[in-house]
Design goal:
single chain, 334 residues, Rossmann fold, 4-stranded antiparallel β-sheet, 12 helices, 12 strands, binds iron/sulfur cluster, binds magnesium ion, cell membrane, membrane, nucleotide-binding, transport
Length: 334
Amino acid sequence: MEKILEVHNLHVTFTTYGGTVQAVRGVDFHLNKGETLAIVGESGCGKSVTVNAVMGLIPNPPGKITGGRILFKNKDLTRLREKKMRAIRGVDISMIFQDPMTALNPTLTIGTQLKEGVKQHHRISDKEAEKRALEMLQLVGIPNPEERLKQYPHQFSGGMRQRIVIAIALICEPELLIADEPTTALDVTIQAQILELFEKIQEVTGISIILITHDLGVVAKIADRVAVMYAGKIIETGTKREVFYNPKHPYTKGLLHSVPRLDAKEKLQPIEGTPPDLFSPPRGCPFTARCPFAMEVCDKVYPKTARLSDSHVVDCWLQDVRAKKLLAATAKNK
Ligand code: SF4
Ligand code: MG
């Protein structure tokens, strides 16, 4: 499978008055062409920071990419100057955010905003831009697009506004779409419609999607693969089936608590305790303090990534043969 994006050992920090926050601490993942990868985890785990790094949107200062590579079609984005990055943003890679209202300019018509989106990057006539705008509104399912083009954001419902935001994100035909909690601000029926829209767009355009969410229902509906983040690290990655039916990391199991169902429409349940302070993250496994299986080694040394299949990887000492032997010996001595 062709990889469109590869992130290797990404580190991102933020300098604050209280010290340096290590928000992303050595993240590895990739995205295959035409697939949807969901990055899940509790708020503050580093998922938004990770995709903002891909977009070149880490404000420096206070933020900084302190290590790693982000390869988009084999080009390292961390080495590009802002001018080059600006040419990629919106054209090759687009991003949509949680709140459609803040993404739209309330003083401009939808048509103007769509046309500006494409004219910023391409030399085309107003007429051609308008034609593109109409096509986009049709693609995202806005009825009466000719009339709707002349209207302002407040004349649309929340769900329709999110459709318009998606249309703007797609107007330059990007190859990668990053969606950060795109349905969180919407009510449940609208959420389902927007998720269906993502599926339709992927079918029509073949676009690759990274979806950030804390909602397992969303993951179950549209993800091909899932990466679970905790305390600035990806601790388990696999196909949707592997992660839902055969989770191996105790944190993933905690998120899914009890027997997972692909059709489950549940939010992540809080696990007892809190994630570690990322001002001074632990050397070892960051889940140690909350993990019912924690061993002595866990909080001293970070576990090596164990490969359980071509697609399923997990960072947990329980998957290490040495720990397995140790546990067996302890059990015998008891
Ligand atoms: Fe629990 Fe240890 Fe695995 Fe971390 S490495 S999840 S503390 S068993
Ligand atoms: Mg976020």
